[in-house]
Rieske domain-containing protein
Amino acid sequence: MVPSKREIPVVQVAQPASSGLPPEFRHLLEWLGTGLERMEGIEDERTREEVFALLEGVDILHRQGLGRLLDLVTDLGGSGLAERVSQDPVVRTLLEMYDLPEADERTQVERALEGVYPYFKSHGGKLEVLGVEEGRVRVRLSGSCEGCPGTATTLERVVEEALREGFPGFRELVAEEPPPPATGRPIQLGRKPQRRPRWVSVGRLEDLEPGEIRALRPEGTALLLVRLDGEVYAYRNGCPPGSALALHLGRLEGSTLVCPWHGCRYDVRTGKREDDGEGGLAALPVAVGDGEIKVAVGVEEVEPG
C-alpha cells in the first residue's frame, strides 16, 4: 500500500541562505521548488501519492548517503577538512537542505543571532551568549542605551524572536544582568559630556492600526513604523537602509515585510533578511508609555552633574 502524502517528509526545495551560488544553480533551485508545488496539483490521488513516495525514497537515500560521506571525510581529515568541503557554496547549500552537519546547540544559537549582533552594535550595546543547555539560552545584554524607557525589554524581545525563528530547540531565554562597574574612581582629565538617546514622540498607539506600515520623518529622519501582534517596531525607511527607495510602500505577509522595489524580505520583528541577501534593516529603539509611541532618533549630549 502506498503511504499517504501527509506521512511523507519530503525535503522542501527552497532558496537557502547560502551566498555565492552560481546563477544556474539558483535557477535550478527555483525550478525544483515550483516543480514540487506543481506536483501538489496532480488530480489523480494515487498518482500523486506514488510521486511523493518516490521523492521520499530519493530523500532518504540522499540524506543517508550525505551523512555517511561527511562521517568518512571527518574520519579521514578531521573536522577541519569537513568544514573546508562545506565552504563550497553548492556543497553547503545541498548540506543545508538536509540539515547537515548537525550543529551543536551553541553553534545553532550563534547562527540564529547573526542578524541581531549588528542591531546591538548600532545602538552601542553588546550581546554575549553565556551558555546553552537543553534549549535554555543564557545571555548578557550590556551597554545598550542605559536608562532608556523600554529599551532593555525591546532588545530582549529581539533576541527571543531571533532564537524562536532560528534555533529549533529553543525553550527559554535568560537575560543576566551585566557585572557592576568597577568601584575605583577613574582619573578625570576634564569634564566630558555624556550622551543619551533623544526620544521623539511619533504618535498615539491607538492611531496605528494592527498590520499598518506608516512612514514618518521626525526631525528629518525618514523612518517607518509597523504594528504587529501588539508590538511596535521602527526602522529607517529605505531598502537598503539609507536608500531613497521607500520601504513603506511594501507589504506585510504575516511577519515578513516585502520590499516593493527588489522583493527583499525582512522579518519585521528583528529586521533580519529572510532571503539570501546580505544586511538587514536599521532598527531604532521604541518605547510606548501611556499610549504614546516614542522613537530614539539620535543622541544628545548631557553635561555630567
